Amino acid sequence: MATPVKPIRRAKGLSDRAIAWVFVAPSIFLLLAVNIFPLIWTINLSFTDFKANRNRDVEYIGLRNYERILTDSDTWLTMQATAHFLFWTIFFQVLIGFALAFLINKKFRGNDLWTTIIVLPMMLSPAVVGNFWTFLYQPQIGLFNYMVTFFTGGDPSSFSMIGEVALAPWAIVIVDTWMWTPFVMLICLAGLRSIPGSIYEAAECDRASKWRQFWTITIPMVLPFLMLAVLFRGIENFKMFDLVVQLTGGGPGSTTEVTSINLKREAFEKWRTGYASAYAVILFVTVFGLASIYVKALNKVKDR
Amino acid sequence: MKRRLLLSTAVLGALSAAGTSQAADLTLCWAAWDPANALVELSKEFEAESGHTMSFEFVPWPNFADRMLNELNSGGQLCDLLIGDSQWIGGGAENGHYVKLNDFFEAEGISMDDFAPATVYAYSTWPKGTPNYYALPAMGDANAWFYRRDWFENEEIKAAYKEATGDDLREPQSQTELLQIAQFFQGREIDGQTRYGASIFTERGSEGITMGVTGALYTWGFKYENEPGSYDMEGAVNSPEAVEALEFYKELYETATPPGYSDSYMEQSLDAFKSGQVAMAMNWFAFFPGLYADPNTGGDNIGFFVNPPQNQAGSTLGGQGISVVSYSENRDAALEYIKWFAQPSVQATWWELGGYSAHNSVLNDPGFADSAPFAGDFLEAMNDVQDFWQEPAYAELLLAMQKRVHDYVVADQGTAQEALDKLIEDWTEVFEDEGKL
């Protein structure tokens, strides 16, 4: 018996493949227009001395922009600031996020309420969070300094979290950890809840201690989830911009000038468009390369 | 009858169309601050006289440059008139953002000789000092100081100062005296509260710390170039005097400012003063009318002084000129506004409302110096103002200075000599890219 589809196909003269293309084409077009074309155009601009705010001829200068960026000590300092921020935020977020997930995973009264309260910070806008913490960090009126000096004694205005070179990077790490630990917690919680209870029951039968169950069952089975959380946070924090701008603006000096802030200054304040394009390409390659290696490792862990 | 009706309708329609084509809705773009509110008041007169309506786009200072330069660079038609920073004039002219006003000035009998020479040079001309005008001086301004007159005149405090320093407490006559006074107030308890010396500019993101530091640098004799127009900076930018001035500013920051003032500009300076934290504060003259009118810290409680000299007199130039944006569809109406604004009577009202006129008829008026407690200081400051580079690449030059100076003063990295040496390297690279070196 003939299906009703065939006569329609014949009427329109379209094959299955053609229909598929009709549906997929708009998405492909959008992808090309919004992602691929700008990427190619950026790569093209990275070999020029183009300045978007100037009416002058554009010259192709080969790899000069790349050479200048990679030999500029300031570039490496911003990379260093970014690496410091990345490492410590991920370290604390994974540690605290997993611990919180482990606690929340236990059945206790008010479990849902605590989960909601813990998750609240990640619902806020980074700009709002940055502004809010700027006030908390104020040496004279800020609650943070009072809290610290309440336990340590001393004058609350004796230190400035966002005004001192030694403290400013940590000020950002604290805020980002406060804000995004819940995200890691949720992913870990999903991992913990995906472990079948029968595995623990079997371990109990084999008289495995809780500690052994934790290291041989819980950690290995949550590891892919943890690695996924690290991937998400790593990519996000590599691009971190708004929170840092609100809190320190890259200062004091250039202590907290992460790569995204540096890139924004080059592109939209100095208007060195060609140079900034090369910078963006370098960052893209870095993130893409690191993420690819990481995803391979993640897949290996998953397949174990 | 029907025909007559149609004819009269057509005539009315034509008249109405003609009317709307003459009356324009002009948008004037500026920063969001006290003088902008005064300009709104002033412009009501223009609306009544011309039949045009005025809209205003005021952007907070920290975002002002970003927002407006993006608008100009994209050929946007948001602004018909723009009161842009003095440093933008080079880029505005060379990139075709601003309408050249020479022919218009000539046709309308507007003479630049009627405006204070320093303001014409800084706000209007490109290349600098040539008779090519891209703006009408709109708002004269310079960086200066204000202080707690009530504390300075307090007998107990005066005696304590005399005992501590051997000098009389007074408006500082030099940069070093300013430092001494600020250090005296630092951490001092007055009326049961801890007070601090001075609020200065240390902001990193836009132009703050550069505007503050140059206030010291100019008084020590800082020059951008050995010969104007040569871009020869070695020995000028990093002269021993410049190094000393930069070291002075760092000492002022470290020993005489409130805790945590590592990123402060106009707003933070005003807040520190109004909340009673500091004895002295630096800021632009533009804010002085508002400060004087403040019921708590204004009136008899406040005093004003020009940036004190050291080796020479010098003040950092602020202020802006008003330009017609070349992408405007209302160019004629915008020019009409400039013509109206240039009138001496309008300039007098502008000063009365809180704007700083640069017109000679206002500034040279015998009563001007006594017309406000800060008017005399304003005249004095405008005689010795210096401005940052006004090159088309000024943003690159500015950001380099922001970085080098903030790294040294606030982040305590390296020495003053190293900071200025690196600044020359940065600036040399910019001028090389520009083909000027």
Automatic annotation (TrEMBL), chain A:
Keywords, comma-separated and alphabetical: Membrane, Transmembrane, Transmembrane helix, Transport
Pfam families noted in UniProt: BPD_transp_1
A single GO BP: transmembrane transport
Domain ABC transmembrane type-1: 79-294
GO cellular component: plasma membrane
Subcellular location: Cell membrane
ATP-binding as UniProt keyword: no
Listed transmembrane segments: 20-41, 85-104, 116-137, 167-192, 213-235, 276-295
Membrane topology: Multi-pass membrane protein
PROSITE patterns for the chain: ABC_TM1
UniProt record similarity statement: Belongs to the binding-protein-dependent transport system permease family.
Entry protein name: ABC transporter permease subunit
Species the sequence originates in: Algicella marina
UniProtKB/TrEMBL annotation, chain B:
GO cellular component assignments: periplasmic space
Organism, scientific name: Algicella marina
Cellular compartments annotated: Periplasm
InterPro entries tied to this protein: Bact_solute-bd_prot1, SBP
Record's signal peptide: 1-23
Superkingdom field: Bacteria
Keywords: Signal, Transport
Cross-referenced Pfam families: SBP_bac_1 (PF01547)
Keyword Signal: yes
PANTHER family linked: ABC TRANSPORTER PERIPLASMIC-BINDING PROTEIN YCJN-RELATED, ARABINOSE-BINDING PROTEIN-RELATED
Sequence similarity: Belongs to the bacterial solute-binding protein 1 family.
Protein name from the UniProt record: Extracellular solute-binding protein
Main localization (coarse): periplasm
Cited SUPFAM superfamilies: Periplasmic binding protein-like II (SSF53850)
